[in-house]
Each structure stands twice: as structure tokens, then as C-alpha cells.
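Predict the holo structure. Ligand: tryptophanyl-5'AMP.
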Amino acid sequence: MNEIKHKKRIFSGVQPTGNLHIGNYLGAVKNFVKFQSAGNETLYCIVDLHAITVWQDPEELRNSIRELAATFVACGLDSNKSILFNQSQVSSHSELAWVFNCVTRVGWLNRMTQFKDKAGKNKENASVGLYIYPSLMAADILAYHATHVPVGEDQKQHLELTRDIATKFNNDYKVPNFFPCPEPIIEKTSPRIMSLRDGSKKMSKSETSDMSRINLTDVSDQIALKIRKAKTDQDPIPEDISGLASRPEASNLINIYSSFKECDVQEVLNDFSGKPFSFFKPKLTEVIINEIKPISKKINDLLKNPDQIDDVMNNGAQKASEISSPIIDSTFKILGLKK
Ligand code: TYM
């Protein structure tokens, strides 16, 4: 087989498990929007098959999928510019995932830190799906021969595994570059937004305390309260970045501000150096509310018309299948499963 040249194609996915928080927004979805306006081919997927690796209430899952679709659109994803769809509606993901389960080595999966975090102490009781989750993630990306994947830093290890799976498949079946080795695109200022209660933990949907995160659907009073209560330290805001070393909570709030404002951390420090956090926090609250309030209003408006959201996602699934089906066909031919 001749070596394939891949054109630039951007793919990313988000799990429909509860509300999106500003970590998902700043680390991922806000960038998804930027990529679609630069003339790129973009696919954004609600990865519902990933969600069921831990038990989900079916009715809640159905609602969460629709809410995430509304959130995508409310954040600025546009079905005329991007393909927006649900993973479970395109069978290529599951088909390729099985192939990759046969390529991925057990030793590789054993190194995945996200499995260790999510399975916790009771590994024996975790689902097999949770263990092989990264191989489905590789299939999500490679079923489209995607070359670039915008994600938060927590997904970097899964992207490295995706590259290992692509390379091993290409080598094992002597099909150089059939699957591309996709590049992660990780935003500089918001690679990992941390919990508001503990600067050593990432902001997460699964953290029990809702005070640890700001959800895109939080109302202004909730946002103000969460920022007021956010952990900081006694020291004032420093003059330069070196003054933020060993101050994870202070650093996190400054990063959040700079990500929303889309400016450098140093610019924020120039504006606020010497000021206490009691002065900075109301400014941060204002910046967050200004950007999030219109989004949550739009989410609520869109959810009044669920049929319209479902139509967008169904159309997206059809377009996604048109891209992935020939790739699955070629994969099956390479494997000897199809003539
Ligand atoms: P998920 O649903 O946990 O998160 C969605 C996106 O948000 C990013 N993110 C963060 N970024 C910065 N700071 C944080 N605190 C933070 N928390 C989450 C994540 O890095 C992600 O980009 N495995 C993926 C979903 C997935 C996927 C894919 C992604 C499945 N298949 C294929 C890309 C390509 C996940 O659980 O993301």
C-alpha cells in the first residue's frame, strides 16, 4: 500500500456526564469554536459510549446528552461549520474499538493514570469498559483519520496511547501511515483548570463538592459565592510569574482570569500586582459572569426545542458516518475481514 497523505482534520469529544464546568469550557470547548472558524474540517462528538463505562441512569443520560448538544451550540459550535454528533449513533466507533482492543497491549493500558484514578481502590469491581476506554478513544479519533485533537492536559496520555496504537497497527499490517499519528492541541493558559477548593486537584465533574467548580449553568449568585469561597493564601498578587510558584490556588484563579480575558498571565499580574485577593475576586467574578451568562441563557432557550437539537445531532451522525464508513471498510480489508 502506498503511504497515505492525511489532510488536516480536527476531532474531539466530551462525555455527557453532568454539567460542563469552566475547566471543560476553557480547556476544550472554547477552543473547538476557534478551530471551526479557521477553515478547518472539524468534528465534535458527544461520547455517550464512554459515559456508560460507569453506571448511568438511562433517563438522566438521555437528558445529559441533549443538554450537552445544547451546550455545544450555545458555546458557539455551528452545525454549518462543524459536524456535531453522538458517538453511539455512528457504529464505526465500536467497530474500530474492537479492532484496537486486539492491537492494544495490556501493559499499555496498565499504565493509564485515568483508569487508576477512576477505578480507585476497588479495581476488581471496575467495568472492563473503563479499563479499555482509551482504545475506544483511539477509535473515535482514528475512525476519521483525524490529525489534530484539541483537549485538556489530562487527556495527553490517552493521545500518546492513540499514537502508539496507530503506529503498531500500521507496522503489524505493513500499511505505512494508514492511520495518522494525531497531535494533541493543548491550550497554553488553561491546560488544566484546578479545583476551587484544592489547587492540587483538577476541576472535575465527578468531585463531590459542587463548590469546587463553576458550571456553565450556574447563576450569577452561585458564581459569586463560589469565587468568594475559593481557597487562596494571605499574600498579595505578585509582580511576576515566579511569585506564583508554590501558590497553586492563587495561580489557578489568575489563570482562569487570563483564560477568560484571552491575555497573558503577566498582563493580569501587571494590572493587579500588590492587590489582595479580596480585591481581585470580584473582578474575576465579573469576567466569568459576563461570558457565561449568555451561554446558560442560550442553553435554556435551546432546550425548549428538543426536536431541533435532535435534528442537528442526527444530521451530524449521518455526515460523520459518510467519512468513517470507507475508513472502516479499508481497515477490514487490511485485516483480511473483507474482500
Ligand atoms: P471529558 O469529558 O472528561 O472532558 C472534556 C474535555 O475537557 C477537558 N477538561 C479540562 N481541561 C482543563 N481543565 C480541566 N479541569 C478539565 N477537565 C476536563 C478534557 O481534557 C477534555 O478535552 N476521554 C475524554 C473524552 C473523549 C475524547 C475522545 C476526547 C473520548 N474520546 C476523543 C478527544 C478525542 C474525556 O473524558 O473528556
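The beta strands are 10-14, 42-46, 82-86, 148-150, 183-185. The chain has a mean pLDDT of 96.
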